[in-house]
Amino acid sequence: MKKVLIISWKFPPDPDVGGLRIRGLAKYLPEFDWEPVVLTSTLPSNPDARFRVIQTPYYDVVGAWKKRFGLKPEEGVKKQLGMKTRKNKKSIIDYVLDLLSGVIAYPDPQKGWYEYAVDAGSKILKNENINAMISSSKPETCHLIASRLKIEYGIPWIADLRDLWTQNHYYPYGPIRKFVERRLEIKTLSKADALVTVSKNLAKTLEMLHKGRQVYSIPNGFDPDEVATSVNLTNKFTITYTGSLYQGKRDPAKLFKALQELICEGKLNPNEIEVRFYGPREDWLEDDIKRHGLQDNVKWYGIVPHEIALEKQRESQVLLLLLWDHPEEIGVYTGKIFEYLAAQRPILAIGGPPKGVVKDLLAETNAGVYATTVEDIKKALEKFYIEYKLKGKVEYKGERAKIDKYSQREMARKFAEVLDTLTRK
Known about the structure:
The chain is an alpha/beta fold. The chain is 42% helix and 15% strand. The chain is built from 16 helices and 13 strands. It has helices at residues 17-28, 61-68, 77-80, 92-104, 114-127, 141-153, 175-189, 200-209, 253-264, 283-291, 306-315, 335-343, 357-365, 374-391, 400-403, 408-424; strands at residues 2-8, 34-41, 53-56, 132-137, 157-161, 194-197, 215-217, 237-242, 273-278, 298-300, 318-322, 347-350, 368-371. The strands form 2 sheets. Strands 3-2-1-4-5-6-7 form a 7-stranded parallel β-sheet, sandwiched between helices. The protein has a 6-stranded parallel β-sheet with strand order 10-9-8-11-12-13, sandwiched between helices.
């Protein structure tokens, strides 16, 4: 069996969704004759003993700067300064903090991991017969580490971009930094033997910047071992969301408006409805809930362990997927959709562009409904609710054979094919 070094900032038990892609590779690549060795930063607790995981310390660059100004390194600056996050509104202090972040955390806040990971990676490559490398971002520091190791040891390297780098439409910095960082991206990834991203649309975007590079599309996936079996559904008509929110981009304002109108029209009984959020608390979301008069229907349960989040997904009548109606979202899968596929509950995806990979996936698998307008959301909710009233539950109609194409086993198989191709060369 050949060995592959996987460089990833996160790995379970860290709850980061991106780490689940790496866990899937670590779990299923051995089925395709590749033994993974995962190089990662210090984890909050011990990883699964089945996986070979090498942890290294790191220097917290941002935390060190916070200390210099008398702030706690583990807490957000705005929170410590008593600043509220306001939806679609930035203060002068916000702009100053963004500017400082752009300088201090270049190219990303995890850059303090670089030296530690390069040192650990070098020891592995010197002492073991490693046949290839995979680096997976975010953060992009993972690719800088792999590039350095590639230069020194010359082994085949796949750069896996779960999100695009400077071509990402979420890119938060100004044109000067983007110009400088784009040069860094081109220089760094020019050393890679292949680039991988999560959809064909994003692969085409990568090809435009990295001309002549081999680019592959390999979607994320769900763990087939975590597919829900029979569970007891909630008695109420529950709509559940797990994870973080992004104000003005992936937020539930359209859902709230649709619910408010349906309740006012007498089409939904407010006593039977509960919308549940599991994730970090957001001040602006609480304001939205009050503005729509949904305080009795929308509940915020805070951050919960990953296992609890999966349990809440599986017992829910409907799962909420929030998308951004930006044109470039057309090629973006969220990691959450694959968890939802494993939960085997109907998905309500809202807020995205008129077309895109998520819409295509839901249509292909029959796993849910894609709604872009408030009227579309109202129609979907009313249909779900009528079925709930008639049958006592919302039926799941997903097609398992088609859903299995989006498993982590299939994801690992595709990575193995690329690894085999590169090592044969």
